[in-house]
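Posting here for the record, re: 6-O-phosphono-beta-D-fructofuranose.
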Amino acid sequence: MHVAILTGGGDCPGLNAVIRSVTLALSQAGAGKVSGVRQGFLGLLEDRVVPLDPAAVRGLINVGGTLLGSHNKADPFAYFGAGGADCSARALACLERHQIDVLVAVGGDGTMTIAEKFARLGVPVVGVPKTIDNDLMHNERSFGFDSAVAVVADALGRLETTARSHGRVMVLETMGRHAGWIALEGGVAGGADAIVLPEWPCHVDALAALCEQRRAEQGYAIVCVAEGAQVDGLDPDGPGNIGQRLMQALGQRLGPEADPRFTLLGHLQRGGSPTAFDRALATRFGVQAAELVLQRRFNHMVALQQARCVAVPLGDVAGCSRLVPQDDELLLAARRQGLLVGVAQG
Ligand code: F6P
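Prediction output follows.
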């Protein structure tokens, strides 16, 4: 059997660990040949297939990024971008030329959606969930998320000391276009006073009131906002926008002493070495993906449910996002601690 691995979409810590894990598990089982496809689905269009073996992946468990490279715009069914041409035949020809029997696609929602389309064309596919946003359906944890949360929590801790020194209001913008998991968990772990998520619209006036109250009590206030957050009248039009606009809006309401500042964490959340948790999770996912290949249980994505690895049909995952629900335990815990979390508009 010839198995090819690709990593699609935005990168995240733990991708190398999963490539390593799939390669080692398949080699250990004597499953046949393993290859890597470079730059995600672009590599299928451009015929960028490279051999993988245990020697090629040893020593990678703690290395960030992906040795195969990635691409978040190369969709063979719409190349380049919406309205683009369907080039899937070119990708299929590449699979055939290299006699690739199974494709292991490691990625987020976009990658799973493309993988599912290939599955419908008859390509045996196994998916592995990757996204720092942690928003893939039917999967409680994707690797990369824990590493991103650690960066957010660390940044909030650093902002706290300077906010305290200056008696300031600090706004930290995290990633999370549709789902607020990073802002929620990072915000709680980092001791933010308010957390604003894409899931619930929020009033600037309510935020300003809380900041004022916290400044009265502790001398400063820290707001953690997800990039896709909806704050009244402020358009969350891309990274660096909502956090900056929020800082300005708070400045107008709080007066000169609060002197708000804004920090955009951006791609720092995706870079660097994976946490030990993510290394272990990526290893488990990789082994489970290899197991699905060996069992010939195709067109499924590996997922974590109730702390165990399971397989869910790709069709159930493609095209949807797992958002923070109203009854999320951490969300409720944050509210019960007096944090302002996504206050619904009145
Ligand atoms: O992986 C998703 C994500 O983390 C989003 O939260 C963010 O908007 C996006 O990546 C940014 O990715 P890029 O700048 O690589 O397009």
